[in-house]
UniProtKB/TrEMBL annotation:
It holds the Pfam family tRNA_SAD. Its main location: cytoplasm. This is Alanyl-tRNA synthetase domain containing 1. PANTHER family: ALANYL-TRNA EDITING PROTEIN (PTHR43462), ALANYL-TRNA EDITING PROTEIN AARSD1 (PTHR43462:SF1). Belongs to the class-II aminoacyl-tRNA synthetase family. Alax-L subfamily. Residues 399-426 form a coiled coil. It comes from the Eukaryota. It comes from Rangifer tarandus platyrhynchus. The keyword Zinc applies. PROSITE patterns: AA_TRNA_LIGASE_II_ALA, CS. The keyword Zinc applies. Keywords: Coiled coil, Metal-binding, Zinc.
Length: 543
């Protein structure tokens, strides 16, 4: 399978250039930082290989640069050789790869920024050090076993790549005599793991058996060793048992029935059969579930036959059409019994804590309740604390004053934007008068400004009025993307407008003597001007 480029974000600082290679749960990470380039490679949990090689815009101090790995990405702090010299781009060549983007969330002016930069470097280094030095997962002696391969057949796996595009992987569906890897179902994603150290990329249920997708074939009849990814498994156990507990408490306290749920990658959602849930109800549910966690209530799993009278006492939303065999019942002592095929903790104390983040409007008079359980709460707290520290450094005030400080900044920004808009309008009027009183340059007047918008161009066109002269206005990056407006005689604009958009590799529309739109190639403005002048010359010759 061909290597891919990892999506990369970067931003510039007086002393450092920051880069983030966005690969979650990476393995086999290698980072080589040299004076003029960086080479990065790794694998993701699906076995996809990533490789990026970047020739730097300028020389760097490789000895004073570092990289840190987290579960979400790999961040590099590259020390500039010449400090306080801005980098207009990351790469040596003025060509932007599709996988490289500016991190606008962290890009800002430098003025007074060195203290913030230092605080940010220290914060990221401290946070990523905590993640990268995390101890090994619990022993998995009871989470691996030996079994036999029953069948192996060619197959394809439809998945989503790191760039968000759908991909098709070629491989094999392996069926084992028995398995401990959970296939996706019941709102819970599937397990990950290995068979003889070969990565299992997906586990799905097909009738009474589980299909394990691998990219390496396994010979039927062979004895193999199966091991589960415990960190992923335990996370799913915490979220699924947390859902059972919240569902039971919400029903018991307020009669709020669960109609469905989803175990998401970062958060989980329970759909409640109610058009609204109050903040007081949410607080009461959260308090009750955490009390039960502190009570260390046991969680038991039993199997009942389909004709067992006790089945009628068990909560559930029905069985799959292809269900076969006994019914699996998960019981939280004195709280809930529920038909379920998923993986669960053996005691509520293993959940540690549950945090309900809030509610959102669901579909068809439903309400979605969003929650985290166990280790996800700790990770959420770590992210929130990291954000709080960064905001404290940026806003230069305590956490309790963050909201007021941001409100003041917003008010100041709105006032500046209003003043800027008024100045831009005055500038447009002044510019229009200057253009109107200048020679018409062969029947074509052109103007480009880096700053401006559609309103700016239309004010100029309004002030100049319905002249016989063609008016071609553009705003934006001189060589990149921007906006354009063509004004003049209606017949000429109707003819030339689409051709102007085509030259600028953009799109637009128009009526009544004006054609405006978006362009991607402002560097071709001279070609448009030549096109307009040729048209004017041809019209003059015909007259």
């Amino acid at each position: 399978m061909a290597r891919q480029h990892a999506r990369t974000l970067w931003y510039d600082r007086p002393k450092y250039v920051f880069m983030e290679f966005c690969v979650e749960d990476s393995t086999d990470v290698h980072v080589l930082i040299e004076d003029h380039r960086i080479v990065f490679s790794c694998k993701n949990p699906d076995g996809v290989e990533f490789y990026n090689e970047i020739e730097f815009y300028a020389k760097v101090n490789c000895k004073d640069s570092q990289d840190k790995r987290s579960g979400r990405s790999i961040t590099c702090f590259v020390r500039k050789w010449k400090e306080k010299v801005a980098w207009p781009r990351l790469t040596k060549e003025d060509i932007k790869p599709v996988w490289l983007s500016v991190d606008f969330d962290n890009w800002r002016d430098w003025e007074g920024d060195e203290e913030v930069e230092l605080a940010q470097v220290e914060h990221y280094a401290e946070l990523l050090k905590k993640v990268s030095t995390k101890g090994p997962p619990p022993a998995m002696d009871d989470l691996d076993f030996t079994t036999t391969v029953v069948s192996c057949r060619p197959a394809e796996l439809h998945t989503e790549g790191s760039n968000g595009k759908k991909e098709v992987l070629s491989g094999f569906q392996v069926v084992l005599e028995d398995t401990l890897l959970f296939p996706e179902g019941g709102g819970q994603p599937d397990d990950r793991g290995t068979i003889n150290d070969i990565s299992v990329l997906r586990v799905t249920r097909r009738g009474t058996q589980a299909d394990h997708f691998t990219q390496t074939p396994l010979t039927p009849g062979t004895e193999v060793h199966v091991r589960v990814d415990w960190e992923r498994r335990f996370d799913h156990m915490q979220q699924h048992s947390g859902q059972h507990l919240i569902t039971a408490v919400a029903d018991d306290l307020f009669g709020l029935k669960t109609t469905s749920w989803e175990l998401g990658r970062l958060r989980s959602v329970i759909e409640l059969d109610s058009p609204s849930v109050t903040a007081e109800q949410v607080a009461a549910i959260e308090q009750s579930v955490n009390e039960k966690i502190r009570d260390r209530l046991p969680v038991n799993v039993r199997e009942l036959s389909l004709d067992d009278p006790e089945v009628e006492q068990v909560r559930g939303r029905g069985l799959p059409d292809d269900h076969a065999g006994p019914i699996r019942v998960v019981t939280i002592k004195s709280v809930d019994s529920n038909m379920c095929c998923g993986t669960h903790v053996s005691n509520l104390s293993d959940l540690q804590v549950i945090k309900i983040l809030g509610t959102e409007k669901g579909k068809k008079n439903k309400t979605n309740l969003i929650f985290l359980a166990g280790n996800r709460v700790l990770k959420w707290m770590e992210r929130s604390h990291g954000t709080e520290k960064a905001l404290t450094a940026l806003l230069k005030c305590g956490a309790e004053d963050h909201v007021e400080a941001v409100k003041k900044l917003q008010n100041s920004s709105k006032l500046l934007q209003k003043n800027n808009l008024n100045l831009l309008r005055d500038l447009a009027v002044h510019t229009a008068h200057s253009l109107r009183n200048s020679p018409d340059c062969g029947g074509v007047i052109t103007l480009h400004r880096k700053d401006g918008d559609s309103e700016f161009m239309n004010i100029i066109a309004n002030e100049i009025g319905p002249e016989e002269t063609l008016l071609f206005l553009t705003v934006g990056d001189e060589k990149g993307a921007g906006l354009f407006l063509l004004a003049g005689p209606a017949e000429a604009v109707e003819t030339l407008g689409p051709r102007v958009a085509e030259v600028l590799e953009g799109k637009g529309a128009g009526k009544k003597g004006r054609f405006q739109g978006k362009a991607t190639k402002m560097s071709r403005r001279a070609e448009v001007q030549a096109l307009l002048q040729d048209y004017v010359s041809t019209q003059s010759a015909e007259e």
